[in-house]
Structures are given as C-alpha cells and as structure tokens.
Amino acid sequence: MTFRLPIYAAAAALLLAAQPMSAAMAGNLNYSAEEAKQDTSELLTSLKEFSVEQKEQAVDAAEDALHEVDDRIDALQARVEDGWHDMSEQARDSARDTLNALRERRQDVAEWLGGLKNSTGEVWVDVKQGFSEAYQDMSEAWDKAERELGT
C-alpha cells in the first residue's frame, strides 16, 4: 500500500499545477504570461513523472485539466459574443479565427488524451510526449487568443 502514496502525490502535483493555468484562462489580470508559461511547464513536468502503472491517475488529472480548458474557452467565447456588436467586421473575423485556432489546439490535446487512455508499455512514453507537446501548443494558442482578443 505504500506504492499508492507516490501515485497520489504525483496526481495532486499535476492537479495543483493545472490550477494556476485556469486562473490565467479566467482572465485574472494579476496573472502574467510568464507565470502561465511557468505553470504549463510545471504541469508538463509533472505529467512526465507518471509511469505506465500510474496511467489512470495521469489520465484523470489530464481530463480534469481539459475540462477546465473547455470552461475557459466557453467563457472567452461569451466575452467575445458580449462585445460582438461593438466590433468591426475585421475584428469579428479575427476573433472567429482566433477562437477556431484555440479550439483546434484543444482538439489536438483531446486526441492525445485518447492516446494516453489507450497506451501501454513503451508507447506510454511517446504518447505522454505527444500529449505534452499538444498541451504546450494549446497554451501558446491561449496566450495568442488573450493578446488578440484583449480579454
């Protein structure tokens, strides 16, 4: 039973690392882009520490982080819709393109999450790497969306 303690500690670390990222996505003005990058780095470092035996905990933590991302994308969409009538046609097109790019990156993360759920053995390491890269890309798309949409 002592084996479970490291698993729970690693899962808790992954979830705690995701928390500050959600604060950034919520539009917390006191949360800098550098802090968001640091928190993403910590999240991805935590994920790398999960072994294939800890797959279930890693998947649960990654699913929780993705659900949080979904909530923040929905909130960003609502903020854009609230200002839609005050936007020029060019700004509307840009906002639409930015949100679509963010959703595409989110979908890439979801696909890699599916790979995490189904991977075993030596493939686990490669799939974790792919998930990490997709999550990093999504984080960068989020930063770009925040800059472009001024939220």
What can you see in these coordinates?
With about 150 residues, this protein is mainly α. Helix content is about 80%, strand content about 0%. It has 5 helices and no strands. It has helices at about 5-25, 35-50, 55-80, 90-120, 125-150. α3 packs antiparallel against α4 (about 90-120) and α4 runs antiparallel to α5 (about 125-150). It is elongated and about 55 Å long.
Taking the alpha carbons of the first and last residues, their distance comes to 47 Å
Rough outline: elongated
Largest sheet: none
Low-confidence runs (pLDDT<50, min 5 residues)? 1-31
Rg value: 17 Å
Number of separate strands: 0
Written as H for each helix and E for each strand, in order along the chain, the element string is HHHHH
Structural class: mainly alpha
Percent in helix: over 70%
- Sheet-strand content, in percent, reads under 5%
Number of helices: 5
Mean pLDDT across all amino acids: 75
